[in-house]
Design goal:
alpha+beta; Arc Repressor Mutant, subunit A; nucleus; three-stranded antiparallel sheet; transcription regulation; DNA-binding; TFIIH-class transcription factor complex binding; 6 strands; TFIIE beta domain-containing protein
C-alpha cells in the first residue's frame, strides 16, 4: 500500500473572516455616518482603516454607494452630499422663505453646523415645531408685522378718551342722535301646579261597582 503525503499551502485572506456584517445597507450606513461626521473627502484606504471595509475589493458595494443620493464617489474618494447647500445665514433664511411646509432640522444641520446658531440669532423670525415622532421642523415666521413709527405711536398715546358727559355734548353738537340700548328682561315663566296623578283602581268586588273612588280622593 502506498501512502501519499500532500503539503497544501493555503493563503488566507483576512477579509474572508471579517466580523463585519454582510448586509450592504449596513456598510453604506456606516460609511455615510463616517463621512458625514468628518465633512471632508474620504479615500478608500481611510475607510478601510476606520471601518475595516475594503472598498477596493468590493465593486458591488462601490456601485451601491454611487447610487446613493447622499454620496459622491470620485477618484477613489467618498464625499458626503447634504440635502441642502447652505453657505451662510442669508442662504439659510432664503431657503426657509421658499419652503411652505417647513424643513427638518436634522437635514439643515447636515448642511451646515451653524444652523442652530443662526436660529437663535433670528429669534422670533424662525419657528420650530416638534412632531409626534420627535422630529423638529423649522419654518420662517412671516406673520410678524412691522412696528409703527415712533412718531405715530406718540400721537396715538397723546389722544385721551373724553369722559361720558363731554362725549355726549360733542355728539349732540355734531347733530348725531344718541340712542340708549334698552335691555328687555324676560318675564319668568310661572310654574304650573303639579297635577295629582289619577290612580286606576282595579275593582274585583262586584258589589262596589259604580262607586267613584277618584272623587273620594279630592
Amino acid at each position: 500500500m502506498f501512502q501519499f503525503n500532500y503539503k497544501v499551502n493555503i493563503i488566507i485572506n483576512s477579509s474572508m473572516f471579517s466580523s463585519q456584517p454582510k448586509h450592504l445597507n449596513t456598510y453604506i450606513l456606516k460609511i455615510i455616518n463616517l463621512i458625514k461626521k468628518v465633512k471632508r473627502p474620504f479615500n478608500y484606504y481611510e475607510i478601510k482603516e476606520e471601518l475595516g471595509i475594503n472598498l477596493a475589493h468590493n465593486p458591488g458595494l462601490i456601485q451601491s454607494l454611487k447610487k446613493n443620493p447622499r454620496i459622491e464617489v470620485k477618484d477613489n474618494t467618498l464625499i458626503y452630499k447634504p440635502l441642502y447647500q447652505i453657505k451662510n445665514k442669508e442662504e439659510f433664511v432664503d431657503l426657509l422663505k421658499e419652503s411652505q411646509v417647513g424643513i427638518l432640522l436634522s437635514d439643515l444641520i447636515d448642511s451646515n453646523d451653524k444652523v442652530e446658531e443662526w436660529i437663535k440669532e433670528l429669534g422670533e423670525n424662525v419657528l420650530s415645531l416638534k412632531d409626534a415622532d420627535g422630529s423638529i421642523a423649522v419654518f420662517y415666521n412671516d406673520l410678524i408685522l412691522d412696528k409703527a413709527p415712533k412718531e405715530v405711536l406718540n400721537l396715538y398715546y397723546k389722544i385721551s378718551v373724553p369722559n361720558y358727559t363731554d362725549m355726549i355734548n360733542e355728539l349732540t353738537s355734531a347733530g348725531l342722535k344718541i340712542h340708549k340700548a334698552e335691555l328687555t328682561k324676560k318675564k319668568p315663566i310661572p310654574k304650573s301646579a303639579n297635577k295629582k296623578n289619577r290612580r286606576r283602581i282595579k275593582i274585583t268586588n262586584t258589589h262596589i261597582k259604580g262607586i267613584d273612588f277618584q272623587e273620594e280622593e279630592k
